[in-house]
Amino acid sequence: MHKILVLGAGMVGRAIAIDLAKNHVVTVTDKDAERLEKVKTKCPSLSTLVLDVCDHPKLQATLPSFDLVICAVPGFLGFETLKQIIEAKKNVVDISFFPENAIDLDALAKSKGVTAIVDCGVAPGMDNLILGYYNEKLKLTHFECLVGGLPKIKKWPFNYKAPFSPIDVIEEYTRPARYVENGNIITRDALSDCELIAFDMVGTLESFNSDGLRSILFTMSHIPNMKEKTLRYPGHAQLIKALQESGFFSKENIIVNGQEVTPLEVTSKILFDEWKLGETEEEITVMRVTLVGQDTNGDTVTIVYNLHASYCLETQTSSMAQSTGYTAAAAANMLIDGLFNQKGVFPPELIGKDETCYHYILNYLAERNIHYRRTSTLKTN
Predict the structure, then answer these.
(1) Cβ atoms 327, 361 nearer than 8 A
(2) How far apart are the two ends of the chain, measured CA to CA in Å?
(3) The CATH homologous superfamily of the domain defined by 126-310
(4) Is the bond preceding residue 348 a cis peptide, omega within 30 degrees?
(5) Where exactly does CATH 3.30.360.10 map onto the chain?
(6) How many angstroms separate the CA atoms of 231 and 373, rounded?
(7) Could you say which of 149, 244, 265, 298 is the most buried, measured as most Cβ atoms within 10 Å of its Cβ?
(8) Cα separations (Å) of 359 from 172, 256, 352, 364, 365?
(9) pTM for the whole thing?
(10) Tell me: the pLDDT tens digits for 269-318?
């Protein structure tokens, strides 16, 4: 059994810790003692430790006694926390999805003899893994990922509940979206290019541009057409655009009754209550990954993977926590089993190149009822 440290006891970190505790000695940390009590109640075999990752001396004193680290802290803390883990010469799986470029830490990881797998969730994560696998099989011309977490029961007006912090969601809605078209990186406003698309078991959803390609923009730059779009129930994007255009997401200070505030702070507070996902509230995660390319015969192959994950009533675990957290847990066990031992920083598309690692992660997820259902078509040229 290996000793694993999970940094962050939020929705996803909790799911990872509980899953890994089945076969390993796991300690989960958080600066919020109440969160740690909740996870301890769900899994008494876990050890807990109150720790603020911003306290770097305490973090560095904690890391040496562990064999592997899972970084599940909020995005704004992710890059520096990952750097601290690498400095301590610990292999790490990261799902903090920070805005900085993780590859900037590649040289440091190599110099410390560390394997760091980053962006290891559902999206980014599994879509990258699938892309990396088929990039070895086909001459790809198109990649598209449509993904979203949605409440099972709609609540007017937004018909949305956030499995993550509303501030992170607003950041996704305001950051310019990049995609690749005919070999060129195109930048558009987030929420643009809305399309209505039908999904089995859900019905019609709307998709819109978001900046989700991340490392793929650079590691897979030879693919001429690549795009990721976010999924919501129809009408959601128009409401968000109305808030944005009216200044509700502004970071500029305004004076209200003699108090200086920013509209974004007020909006986030209101939306936190409006979008807060209940502990036992049922939700779903929907994803569709489409790849088009030529095989060795020059024929056009279209591969589609569909995911429909649901809230688990038995374990009271959200679909997003399962589909994100179990992917990270799979990568952790893959490292422990010695299936991947290259040194440096690796987004999942670079892991997917290895057929053994690819099937290991898919099988791990299937054993936990997270199924990526594949269809393919062949067009003879």
Answers:
(1) yes
(2) 53
(3) Dihydrodipicolinate Reductase; domain 2 (3.30.360.10)
(4) no
(5) 126-310
(6) 18
(7) 149
(8) 31, 56, 9, 8, 10
(9) 0.95
(10) 899 889 988 888 999 999 999 999 999 999 999 999 999 999 999 989 99
